[in-house]
């Protein structure tokens, strides 16, 4: 069974909340599109430049709006360059509320991240991880 097939089944059964994809930006996008297609969901690519704010509470408000809109629709949320949310590349980091909101979202989330980037410890166990070039093309 390929990573795509296994992950698709885990997502369908609710055993995973989403996936973390590493590889080039184009590879991550293709893989997110493939997962959305296999899950029969529409891909919603979240624009992080419009999501993250330097003002206190604005990032959380923006996330809340996105999650509120997505929770009752058949969407796969794709946060490419998600390491900018969780990693060293920015001084603006989501609060514990935001991390909890990612963990409790009742939908599918896919994070696109640079190789070597990591999710916060509270999210790691909820997401299947893969370096896309090791699993492309999907079987």
Entry summary:
This protein is α/β, with parallel strands linked by helices. The chain has helices at residues 3-12, 25-39, 48-51, 58-70, 83-86, 96-104, 121-124; strands at residues 18-22, 42-45, 75-79, 108-113, 127-131. It is built from seven helices and five strands; from the N terminus they run αβαβααβααβαβ.
H/E series, N to C? HEHEHHEHHEHE
Task: Please state the average pLDDT score.
Answer: 79
Count of distinct strands = 5
| Ends apart, CA distance between termini | 8 Å
Tell me the radius of gyration.
14 Å
Helix content: 40-55%
The number of helices is 7
Strand content: 15-25%
Q: Stretches where pLDDT falls below 50 for ≥5 residues? A: none
Q: Give the neighbour order of strands across the main sheet.
A: 2-3-4-1-5
The profile of the biggest β sheet is: 5 strands, parallel
- Name the overall outline: globular
Estimated structural class: alpha/beta
Tell me what you see in this structure.
With about 140 residues, this protein is α/β, with parallel strands linked by helices. It contains seven helices and five strands; from the N terminus they run H-E-H-E-H-H-E-H-H-E-H-E. It has helices spanning about 5-10, 25-40, 50, 60-70, 85, 95-105, 120-125, and strands spanning about 20, 40-45, 75-80, 110-115, 125-130. A five-stranded parallel β-sheet has the order 2-3-4-1-5, with helices on one face. The longest helix is centred in the first third of the chain and has 15 residues, at about 25-40. The radius of gyration is 14 Å and the shape is globular.
């Amino acid at each position: 069974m390929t990573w795509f097939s296994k992950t698709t089944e885990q997502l369908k059964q609710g055993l995973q909340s989403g996936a973390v994809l590493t590889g080039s930006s184009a590879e991550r996008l293709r893989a997110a599109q493939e997962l959305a297609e296999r899950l029969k969901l529409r891909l919603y690519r979240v624009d992080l430049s419009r999501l993250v704010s330097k003002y206190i509470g604005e990032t959380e408000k923006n996330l809340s709006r996105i999650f509120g809109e997505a929770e009752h629709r058949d969407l796969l949320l794709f946060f490419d360059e998600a390491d900018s949310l969780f990693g060293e590349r920015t001084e603006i980091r989501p609060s514990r509320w935001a991390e909890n909101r990612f963990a409790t979202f009742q939908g599918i989330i896919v994070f696109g991240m640079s190789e070597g980037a990591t999710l916060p410890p509270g999210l790691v166990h909820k997401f299947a991880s893969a370096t896309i070039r090791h699993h492309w093309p999907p079987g």
